[in-house]
Inverse folding.
């Protein structure tokens, strides 16, 4: 009996190992597959054969027998848009997972510290006074960072170090303040020109993404993603009580500042280029916890993969369902809210 139990135990371990390998392969393969398929979606359809041919020829400087308009759509319109979707989806998902772990709250998202509201106000103000894309993106990033600085300052209003509860409450205050300022901008904006532009921009869209936008935003989001990947070992400790974390020799305040800075850079840069996209940083971490567990060592890489695929699929729907493009925030809420309700039903609201 003892021999049989040992054999059964070994087979169980091997099965778990096989499952983990399958999951890892899927997390690597799925973004690659969806990346290539996404080139075919849109109001102007392109066959997979032409997509592969165009990408291959442009990669190696070869001439191919395809229509110039197909090459223009693939290389100029869809390629930077697809890359931006994957980058923003991965960044927002990782930010949500990191902040949920750090605050120990399953309802936390990248917007919790006021960065989205601040960046949205900066962009709305820039649209009101100018039509420069660079100014819009710059002011969005600056005001997003400024909003988080304001949140951190408010959280220390009584002196001493900031607790996670004070940070959350300060973030709610900051978000409400900047949302009021956004409403003020909408109130004074020209209802025939500026107001529609501000409203549509805040709803989120990848329609105007170019290679120049990608070159500006990608290093910022990439820097934040790398920072979170480096900190994923400490996020497990930061999810514990402060006393327990300090007993392990972790500088809590310094680690929190690093995580918050990385999440701020990612969220502000994302808002600066595609507007406010909700639910990605809230729902995707929960999905990934079902797949790989709550250990941030595995959770953050999984969020990188699943988040990139999720937002890319949402964007494919946004530009394919109807003749006019649907704002991203509408689809992410329509898909994310019911799925989040489904997760709550099966988890019973428990948080691990």
């Amino acid at each position: 009996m003892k021999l049989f139990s040992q054999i059964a135990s070994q087979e169980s371990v091997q099965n778990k190992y096989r499952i983990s390998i399958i999951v890892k392969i899927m997390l690597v393969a799925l973004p690659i597959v969806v990346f290539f398929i996404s080139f075919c979606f849109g109001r102007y359809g392109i066959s997979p054969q032409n997509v592969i041919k165009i990408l291959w020829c442009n990669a190696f400087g070869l001439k191919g027998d395809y229509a110039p308009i197909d090459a223009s759509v693939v290389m100029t319109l869809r390629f930077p848009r697809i890359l931006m979707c994957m980058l923003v989806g991965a960044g927002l998902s990782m930010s949500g997972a990191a902040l949920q772990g750090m605050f120990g709250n399953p309802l936390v998202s990248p917007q919790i510290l006021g960065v989205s509201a601040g960046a949205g106000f900066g962009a709305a103000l820039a649209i009101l006074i100018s039509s420069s894309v660079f100014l819009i993106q710059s002011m969005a990033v600056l005001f997003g960072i400024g909003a988080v600085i304001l949140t951190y300052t408010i959280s220390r209003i009584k002196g001493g170090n900031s607790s996670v509860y004070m940070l959350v409450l300060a973030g709610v205050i900051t978000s409400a303040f900047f949302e009021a300022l956004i409403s003020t901008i909408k109130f004074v904006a020209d209802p025939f020109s500026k107001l529609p532009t501000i409203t549509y921009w805040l709803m989120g869209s990848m329609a105007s993404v170019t290679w120049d936008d990608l070159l500006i935003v990608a290093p910022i989001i990439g820097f934040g993603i790398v920072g979170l990947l480096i900190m994923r070992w400490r996020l497990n400790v930061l999810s514990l009580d402060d006393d327990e974390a300090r007993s392990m020799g972790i500088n809590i305040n310094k680690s929190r500042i690093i995580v918050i800075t990385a999440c701020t850079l990612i969220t502000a840069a994302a808002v600066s280029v595609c507007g406010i996209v909700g639910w990605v940083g809230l729902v995707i971490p929960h999905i990934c916890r079902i797949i790989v567990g709550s250990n941030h060592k595995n959770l953050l890489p999984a969020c990188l993969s699943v988040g990139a695929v999720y937002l890319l699929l949402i964007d494919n729907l946004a530009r394919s369902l109807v003749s006019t493009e649907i704002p991203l925030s509408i689809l992410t809420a329509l898909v994310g809210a019911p799925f989040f309700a489904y997760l709550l039903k099966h988890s019973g609201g428990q948080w691990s």
The chain has one domain: 46-347. The chain has a mean pLDDT of 88. The CA atoms of residues 32 and 309 lie 9 Å apart. The radius of gyration is 22 Å.
